[in-house]
Amino acid sequence: MTKDEDLSQFVRQHIGSVWALELLLLLRSNREKCWPAADLVREMRASAKLVAENLSSFERFGLAVLETNGWRFAPANAWLDSISARLAQAYRERPVSTIGMISRPDPVKSLAEAFKIKDGKHDQ
């Protein structure tokens, strides 16, 4: 897998939106700072729910931790640290193509899912 494919796969798997991308890069920009959730909401100009959902995802993925004073960028291993650095560089140099890596729901698949038969029976 090439470095670009590696980065693209990371983004598709762990970055669900531009909000998530911006939030991760904000945390990463000041690695030692612990951000209270309210400060992140204000800084991102986002809803508390959106910030909380992304922070929870980052925690599950090993990208951030919740400490007593707030959230902090804390990659669980060297690879996550390295890929996050590459993501920051790619976004700085090629923002449009980096945003293009973020997975978008397939409209045809979403429509098919809406009509999927549940439990082997049609809803009547």
Question: Would you mind describing this structure in some detail?
Answer:
With 124 residues, the chain is mainly α. The protein has one domain: Arc Repressor Mutant, subunit A (Orthogonal Bundle). 61% of the residues lie in helices and 6% in strands. The chain contains seven helices and two strands. It has helices at residues 3-14, 18-29, 37-44, 48-61, 78-93, 95-100, 107-114; strands at residues 64-67, 70-73. A two-stranded antiparallel sheet has the order 1-2. Helix 2 crosses helix 4 (48-61). The longest helix has 16 residues, at 78-93. The protein is globular, with a radius of gyration of 17 Å. The protein starts with a helix and ends in a 10-residue tail after the last helix.
Biggest pleated-sheet summary: 2 strands, antiparallel
Unreliable segments of 5+ consecutive residues: none
What is the CATH C-level name? Mainly Alpha
Number of domains: 1
Structural class: mainly alpha
Distance between the termini: 48 Å
Our estimate of the beta-strand percent is: 5-15%
- Shape annotation: globular
CATH topology: Arc Repressor Mutant, subunit A
Number of helices: 7
Provide the succession of SSEs: HHHHEEHHH
- Per DSSP E runs of 2 or more residues, the count of β-strands stands at 2
Largest sheet: spatial strand order: 1-2
Query: What is the annotated CATH architecture?
Result: Orthogonal Bundle
